[in-house]
Structure formats: structure tokens, C-alpha cells
Amino acid sequence: MNRHNSRPVVLCLSGHDPSGGAGLQADIEALLAQGCHAAPAVTALTVQDTVNVSDFRVLDRDWVLAQARAIIADLPVAAVKLGMLGSVQMVDTVVEIMQALPGVPLVCDPVLRAGGGGSLGKDDVGYAMRERLLPIAAVATPNLPEARILAELPEGTADECAAKLSAYCQHLLITGGHGDEAEVHNRLYVRGGDCHTFTCARLPGSYHGSGCTLASTLAGRLALGEEVVSAVRSALDYTWRTLRDAEQPGHGQFVPRRLPLDFCS
């Protein structure tokens, strides 16, 4: 039997998207592309397609804890990526899981709305994330609408949201692309005042799973030992390429192409 050095393991706590565009499938594909091993633990089941989400069900916390504990007992977890949690109870469950992983970087993608606008959790979930998860996260990756929910600033700019949220989080990456500007500006805010801006060309169309792709890639880069600013740049570059090469498998949004066509050949 051939044995190779183990790939870094990333524990993914997120929801299942039956369309395959977002959620845990997006995490798995993006992490494979980084040379990492994804260990997916399901937090919620959703009814959604590439257009929008119509319903969801959060799993019982004991099931989620059991999944995570089985992974932690068996595999050397090098990073954790959060996606859809869906309830305050699930936020508390993640906090408990992270207590068993001291020093392991956590990437928090605060999934509160689907790409089509449908809710994936009540507003109190956003408050719980801000108060309990952002302080233990290495990086949080909200888009601007999510940052506004977290900061409780319905019309706030990225800078205004960051001014409030940076008090909770060491690194805050607020992604752009929700306006009509020709270039997309993604801003990494570091507690203490530093800000790094990453600019890319706007691509036509709308995309299903771009946030999941970015956050899981970032977790993978951190698991590989990359420094935060460099890891953010790597994750943004990779995500942009997956959107550039995206395909439209159904009647809704485009889905990022996270793996090359010949990946399994």
C-alpha cells in the first residue's frame, strides 16, 4: 500500500444544498482544489435550487456534536470552516466544538441569506454570531449585506460596518460585488486599523456558492500554513477564477467551477 503525507484536514460545519452549488459540496470541492482533506459535518438541511432557498431544517445539536467529536477524535484538524448554522443553539454548539480545538484557526462565513435573498436564519442568529463566534474566529468573511446585519447598520458602508465589527474580530474580510461598479473591492480589516484592499474585475451574471467557495478556500490556505493576508489573496484569486469559469447547470444562478474538468480522469 502506498502511503503519502496526510493532507491538512479542515472540519466543515455547514448546511447541505441539494443543488450542489453551495454548502458542504462547495466546501469539499474547494478544499480538494487546495490539496486539503474536507471533513464535512452537516448542521442543516435545506430545500433550495440554484435560484433560491425555500425552506431549511437545523439538525439537533447532539447530532452535530457527535459528528464533530468523531472527526476530532480521529483526524488532526488543522482548520475549521463555518457556513450555515441557522439557529442560536447551533452557534452555541460551534463554540463548544471549538473548545476542543485550541489554537486551530476558525473561518466564519456568516451565512444569513441565500444568494436569491431567502433567509437562512433569524436576525438573532446574526447577533449570536457577532457576540460569540467573531471573537474566536481567525477571519470572518461576510459580504456587505451580511456585514450590515451583523453590525445592525441597514444602510452602512463596508467601512462603517468594519468600524463596529472589528471590535469583535481580529480579521474581517468584507466582500464586494453587490453594487454596479466596474471593479469589485474586497477589503480585509485588521483589528488595530490596518486595511488591505483587493480589487478584481466584475464578472457578468450572478453566482450560487461564491461565499462558500471563498471561505472554505481561505480555511484551506490557513490549514496549509499560509499567513492571513496572503491566504486571503490566494482565496480571492482562486474564487474569481471559479466564477470566471462558472457554468449554469439549471435555470438559476451560475455555479462556480471549483475543480478542473479533467479532475477525475
TrEMBL record:
It is an enzyme of class 2 (transferase). It comes from the Bacteria. Gene3D superfamilies: 3.40.1190.20. CDD domains: HMPP_kinase. Residues 17-253 form the Pyridoxamine kinase/Phosphomethylpyrimidine kinase domain. Its EC number is 2.7.1.49. The keyword Secreted does not apply. Pathway: Cofactor biosynthesis; thiamine diphosphate biosynthesis. The keyword Kinase applies. SUPFAM superfamilies: Ribokinase-like. Keywords: Kinase, Transferase. Pfam families: Phos_pyr_kin (PF08543). One of its GO terms (biological process) is thiamine diphosphate biosynthetic process. GO terms for cellular component: cytosol. GO terms for molecular function: hydroxymethylpyrimidine kinase activity; phosphomethylpyrimidine kinase activity. PANTHER family: HYDROXYMETHYLPYRIMIDINE_PHOSPHOMETHYLPYRIMIDINE KINASE THI20-RELATED, PHOSPHOMETHYLPYRIMIDINE KINASE. This is hydroxymethylpyrimidine kinase. It comes from Aquipseudomonas alcaligenes (strain ATCC 14909 / DSM 50342 / CCUG 1425 / JCM 20561 / NBRC 14159 / NCIMB 9945 / NCTC 10367 / 1577).
